[in-house]
């Protein structure tokens, strides 16, 4: 079995809800990322054997073979197939892992893993609202599921509160973490550390190249003034990820493709892990998935130079740090989703683009990425920068 290599990794700058990217159809955003991967690598677009694209809210403009529509909106030939997958917030990270598995097996040599999500144009949960609007059915959780777990629904917001309570985090600790995310993202933007990974998008106000959600002037007092999502809780919109529009993508190949197309890899995939656990607390699973990934890779947390742990809610990376005994100075060094936004299906390959580029910029070796996902699932991907 051969290795899987990353040749290019790109993303758009994030757009706020109703912000700079609100005018972009999500298929077109995805198409621009596909174009950028081809342009930057120099590969013949006809050599691409598949596009695997993550998207969570597959309805409206993100419905009806969304990945295929992204291909049709790009300059790739119509001979390139595509498939849309949903592993919730880890959708495009799973797309990357599926792409890597394809090229490692030799069934395909060149595959693009990508993700796209317009949370402005296709709001969260709009793909599951039909039964509420039309009075048809009971929604995604059947009576059998509800009876098994003793709940009416599974809530990520409740899961975040449960993690905060379990690991002993109060409101002030979460808010301080959120402030750090904005500060790190602002510093990274000022230092142009995102420049090499961003695909510019034309807007009515010019090229969109800067993540729109970063608040360089954020203060602890301002973050602390935001209303809590639950009375008596600790989680607020200010210490949780931002709604975001965006797209991202990674070109994945095997050694045969490297030679055939004269490509230069920028990273090698070392380990791919996915696990599942408690669907109620839900967001704790990255801890257990990371332990399994490190064991299978023959590595320790100390061997990892940088970590990207998705900031769906501040308690998630904070609990991960505490449980793994990890170094906070290696975590989300350029900020995370609290500042940069969390475009759901695009987040997995977005984080990987940031991780690989930062490892190379620092001359470091190993990076680990993990994302918590609805239903109590988590993906972990370990890469080696080249």
Detail the topology: elements first, then pairings.
Blueprint: E1 5-11, E2 15-16, H1 26-41, E3 50-54, H2 66-72, E4 82-85, H3 91-105, E5 110-118, H4 130-134, H5 143-149, H6 156-167, H7 171-190, E6 201-203, E7 206-208, H8 220-224, E8 244-253, H9 255-261, E9 267-276, H10 285-297, E10 306-309, H11 315-324, H12 337-340, H13 347-362, E11 366-373, E12 377-385
Parallel strand pairs: 3-4, 3-5, 10-11
Antiparallel strand pairs: 1-8, 1-9, 2-8, 5-8, 6-7, 9-12, 11-12
Write up this protein:
Helix content is 35%, strand content 19%. With 386 residues, the protein is of the alpha+beta class. Strands 1, 2, 3, 4, 5, 8, 9, 10, 11 and 12 form a ten-stranded mixed β-sheet that branches. Strands 6-7 form a two-stranded antiparallel sheet. A hairpin with a 3-residue loop joins strand 11 (366-373) and strand 12. It is globular, with a radius of gyration of 20 Å. The model has no long low-confidence stretch (mean pLDDT 96). Residues 5-255 form the Thiolase N-terminal domain. It holds the Pfam family Thiolase_N. It is an enzyme of class 2 (transferase). Its EC number is 2.3.1.16.
């Amino acid at each position: 079995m051969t290795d899987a290599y990353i040749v290019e990794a790109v993303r758009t700058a994030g757009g706020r809800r109703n912000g700079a990217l609100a005018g972009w159809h999500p298929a077109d955003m995805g198409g621009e990322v596909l174009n950028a991967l081809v342009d930057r690598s120099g590969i013949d677009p006809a050599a691409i054997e598949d596009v695997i694209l993550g998207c969570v809210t597959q309805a409206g403009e993100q419905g009806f073979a969304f990945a295929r529509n992204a291909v049709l909106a790009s300059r790739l030939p119509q001979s390139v197939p595509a498939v849309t997958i949903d592993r919730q917030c880890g959708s495009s990270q799973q797309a990357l892992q599926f792409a890597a598995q394809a090229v490692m097996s030799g069934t395909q040599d060149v595959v693009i893993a990508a993700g796209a999500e317009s949370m402005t144009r296709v709001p969260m949960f709009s793909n599951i609202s039909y039964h509420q609007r039309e009075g048809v059915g009971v929604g995604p959780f059947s009576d059998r599921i509800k009876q098994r777990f003793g709940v009416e629904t599974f809530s990520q917001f409740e899961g975040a509160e449960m993690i905060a309570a379990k690991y002993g985090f109060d409101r002030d600790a979460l808010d301080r973490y959120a402030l750090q995310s904005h500060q790190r993202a602002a510093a990274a933007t000022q230092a142009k550390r995102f420049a090499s990974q961003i695909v510019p998008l034309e807007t009515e106000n010019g090229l969109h190249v800067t993540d729109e959600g970063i608040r360089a002037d954020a203060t602890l007092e301002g973050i602390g003034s935001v209303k809590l999502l639950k009375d008596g809780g600790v989680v607020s919109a200010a210490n949780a990820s931002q709604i975001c529009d965006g797209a991202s993508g990674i070109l994945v190949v095997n050694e045969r493709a490297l030679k055939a197309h004269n490509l230069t890899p920028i990273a090698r995939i070392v380990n791919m892990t996915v696990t599942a656990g408690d669907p109620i607390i839900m967001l704790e699973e990255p801890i257990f998935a990371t332990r399994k990934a490190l064991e299978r890779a023959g590595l320790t947390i100390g061997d990892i130079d940088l970590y990207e742990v998705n900031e769906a809610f501040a308690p998630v990376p904070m609990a991960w740090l505490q449980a793994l005994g990890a170094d906070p100075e290696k975590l989300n060094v350029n900020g995370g989703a609290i500042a940069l936004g969390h475009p759901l299906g695009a987040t997995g390959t977005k984080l990987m683009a940031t991780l690989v580029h930062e490892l190379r910029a620092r001359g470091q070796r190993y990076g680990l990425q993990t994302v918590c996902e609805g239903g109590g699932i988590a993906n972990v991907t370990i890469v080696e920068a080249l």
